[in-house]
Design a protein that fits this description.
This protein has two domains: about 10-105 and about 290-295, no CATH class; about 110-150 and about 165-285, Immunoglobulin-like (Sandwich). A hairpin with a 6-residue loop joins β9 (about 115) and β10. The chain contains two helices and 20 strands. It has about 300 residues and is mainly beta. The strands form six sheets. A six-stranded mixed sheet has the order 1-2-20-7-5-4, with no helix packed on it.
Amino acid sequence: MRHVGIGTENVAGGGKYSATLLQSVDTNDKYKFVVLANFPNGYGVFQGMTGKSYAAVQQACLSEEVSGNLGFDTDNCFPMFGIPKDGTPEVIDETLDLGSVSLVRAVARVDIGIGKKDANTNTWSKNGVKFNMTQIQIWKSGKQYAYMPLEGSFSSAGGALTITAPSPVGAVATKAYDNTYITSGTYCAEKIYLPEADLQWGSVYDTKHTSRLAIIVGGKYNGSQKETFYRVDLTNDQTSETMNILRNHVYQLTIKSVTDDGYDTAELAYKSVPKNIGFTAVSYTHLTLPTKLIV
C-alpha cells in the first residue's frame, strides 16, 4: 500500500467523489487502486501500513465480532469494495479520472420462503404446502467479515467485479431469527445477512456435515402445535448444485414440500440426515453499485 485518500462527494447526491493522492514521480510510476466505501470507524487501521502488501492490508481490514444478527440501514450502510480500471496500474496526476467503479457488498443475503415465490417481489405464498415456519437458525455462521476479499478470490473485467471464492474469517456461532423476522409464517426476506463462508463441499451428510454452515428451519407441520426442526443445506435438491456463501450474493431458498414432522431439536436436525423437507436453492449477485471517482 502506498497511500490512502479519503473521498469526498463533489455534489451532494451526485454520486461523484474526489480524493487526493500522492502524485507519480514519472510515467513509469504506476499504481493499482482499491475503493472501500462505508468503511466504519474512520481509517486509522491503515496507519503504519504503508508499503504493506494487499494480503497484509486485507487481513487488517476485518469487522468487529458481531454478537447478534447482522443488520444494515441508512445509518449503518453496507461496507463495499471495488477495483477501478479492472486493476490496471495507472499514473497518478492531476488529470486522472478513474471513471465509474463497480462496488460490491461485503456480505451475502439469505431469503427463505415456503411454497411459491412471486416472480416480481421477494414474497412467497404457501401454494398448498402444509407448513408454518416459526423460526430460522443459521449454524456455523461467521461472527465477523472481511471488508476486502482475499487476493485471488475475485476478477474484474469490463468494469464488472466478480466474486469467485469466499474470504471467511474468525470464529463461528449460531444466529437465531424468531417469528418476528417471518411474515405470516411463510417467508423471511431481506433480513438475514451473513459473512462469507467456505462450506467445504463434498456432499450432504459427508464427513464435513457438522463443520459447515447450514440453515435450520423450525416450524409446525400440517396444523400440529408441535414445533420441530429441519436442516436445509446450500444445495439444490433438483440439480445437486452446491454453493458457498459469497459476498454480494443473494441466496433464495424455497421449501417446496414438507411431508412430516422434523427433528425434536435444532441441534439434532443439524447433526442428522435432512428429512421430510424438499426445497430448491438459487443464488444471484446483487446489482453492483457504480460510483464515479476522480482523484
